[in-house]
Design goal:
Layout lengths: L1 H14 L8 E3 H6 L3 H12 L2 H10 L2 E5 L4 E5 L14 H4 L6 E6 L10 E4 L6 H12 L15 H8 L7 E2 L9 E4 L4 E3 L9 E10 L5 H6 L3 E7 L2 E5 L3
Helix pairs in contact: 1-3
This protein binds 2-oxoglutaric acid (AKG) and fe (ii) ion.
2-oxoglutaric acid binds next to strand 3, strand 4, strand 8 and strand 9.
């Protein structure tokens, strides 16, 4: 945990200048400032945890980190960009090929600080996905859109026939816990009216090296490959 916090602090010192007004800095940006030592250390730490074993089970021995969408996020009440309403990460990752998001708060969340709110796994999502695809299809280039679609409460109630309060849950997580989900799990910043303390978190977005998500391929975005061997995880050239 201390390692993660220390690296977060260092990365923000490198990163804040660029992403003007924004509350997040991508690993790709940090690496382009010649500080991939910081992002490598973050990746090595998360892969060395039980989350690394889980990724291996899900994606295999060769992982690709989608570094322009791996980020450090500093969530503060005064910054409206901090709040991200209901969405699917498929917006910017694409439909084809699995993307896993490891979301890691660096403080306890869900009670005094806003956590991440997830759609309950038993909600039928067919209509939601159909609606999402319908919006995507209307984009100028549906194969590689710049797409940020937020689902309103009303739209979610129309899609599911249930009150929105019944559709979601917010796990209480401790600092350094890992929430793992894919690009079709709907989520949002926990709605937290009134004052709350700032919250730092990390987002690692990962795919199998042989199955890069569609929008990443189309845009030819940067990847960092890590592979498993008997010596553990290490950076690699991919397959
Ligand atoms: O940190 C948040 O509140 C939102 C994070 C998010 O949407 C994500 O990691 O995909
Ligand atoms: Fe998200």
């Amino acid at each position: 945990m201390d390692v993660l916090l220390d690296r977060f602090q260092k990365a923000f010192e490198v990163g804040v200048e660029k992403e003007d007004g924004s509350n997040s800095v991508s690993f790709g940006h940090i690496a382009r400032q010649n500080r991939s030592d910081i992002t490598d250390s973050l990746i090595a730490t998360v892969l060395g945890s039980p989350a690394g074993d889980r990724l291996r089970e899900l994606l295999g021995d060769h992982l690709a980190f989608l570094v322009d969408n791996c980020s450090l996020r500093f969530h503060e009440p005064s910054n409206e960009k901090s709040v991200i309403r209901y969405h699917l990460d498929a917006d910017f990752i694409g439909i084809r090929n699995l993307m896993v998001n490891l979301w890691v708060p660096l403080c306890a969340v869900g009670r005094d600080r806003p956590g991440l709110t997830f759609m309950k796994p038993d909600v039928a999502i067919n209509t939601i996905i159909a609606t999402w695809r319908g919006v995507l299809a209307k984009q100028p280039n549906p194969n590689a859109p710049v797409f940020k679609f937020r689902f309103s409460d009303t739209l979610l109630e129309q899609c599911t026939g249930q009150p929105v309060d019944e559709l979601f849950f917010t796990p209480m997580l401790e600092s350094g816990d890992v929430a793992l989900f894919h690009q079709f799990v709907m989520h949002a910043t926990q709605h937290f009216p009134g004052h709350f303390e700032t919250r730092r978190s990390l987002e690692f977005r990962v795919a199998a090296s042989h199955a890069i998500p569609s929008f990443y391929l189309i845009w030819d975005k940067p990847l960092q490959h890590w592979s498993w061997s008997d010596d553990g995880w290490a950076p690699s050239s991919g397959l």
